[in-house]
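Troubleshooting log. The previous structure file for this entry was overwritten by mistake, so regenerating from the original sequence record. Sequence copied from the archived sheet and checked twice against the printout by T.R.
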Amino acid sequence: MRWALASVLLLLAACGRSTPVRYPDVPGEEQPPEENPTNPTPAQPWNLPLPPPPPPPICEEVDGDHLPLPPRNQRPIDVLFVIDDSCSMENDQRALAENFDAFFDAFRQNNVDFHLGAVTTDMNDPLRSGRLVAPFLTPATPNVNQRFAEMVRVGILGSAIERGLLAAWSALREPNRSGANRGFWRAQADFALVFLGDEDDQSGIDITDFGNFLEVEKQGTDITVGSIIVGRCNPAIVNNWRLVQFARRFARRGVTRLCTTEYADTLRSIAGRIVDARCTVALKREVGDMSRVTVTVNGQPATYRRDPPDEAFPFGSLEVSPCPPEGGFVDLLYEDCHLPDE
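Regenerated output below.
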């Protein structure tokens, strides 16, 4: 009989039980609940579903900026590159040539009637000295990318005394204006200067005099000046260079990039300012994360490129797209919230 009872107990131990084991009540010890299909065991904290995230707060008032865009002008644009051709500039000339698309896209997309020419900073060589290094480019120029690359790779045998401001001024005055550079300068066209170099200007001319010359000659049109200072340098020192100060004279139409090697972004930014500065809007406050800002143009979602702070835009700027010909407004919604349903 004992052998039979032990066999039953072993069988139960090996097979397990279908119902919980009941133990004698022990004072102060909680008993496990019996299984009951009509009253399942309560869920424990570790197997509860996560609560849904709270909805974003509803804005009482929209925290944003409402920025006007004037109608687009349809004027043609003349662009003059002034390129340092001294011995240290070979790599930078090549980089400029290779990044032409970054500059030219804004012209192509807006069907701009452009003249695009180049001079060097060498004012000692009479064959340069403000004379265009090649025939200027236009929308009708075939293989414009290749022609631009050939035009801006001006060599590294030029004078070590870089006089870019004087070269630009000489390109726009007589005798070059109606001589070697005939046809480049158009009285009713907008005008842009783009300087590229790794040294400051040594022309000796007064930058105010040159600026006044441009403003008188180009009354009723837009003037844009970009100064690209390349290579390893100290921005605190470069900040006081004449080429930088000259660009800043033109306020929001002046663009400076100091000690940079970011050619694509720099050229894209300058081209955007040249072609359509009205679609460049200033940020009104510090913004750390633009992904939390909603940008619309005339109420429709817009894409944008953010440019870093400069003298004209202390908090940085956005170049928005699409850029409507009729003008309108850019709206920036800053708050991380949504408007109540109407």
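The chain has two domains: 55-70+283-342, 75-278. Archived copy saved in two places this time.
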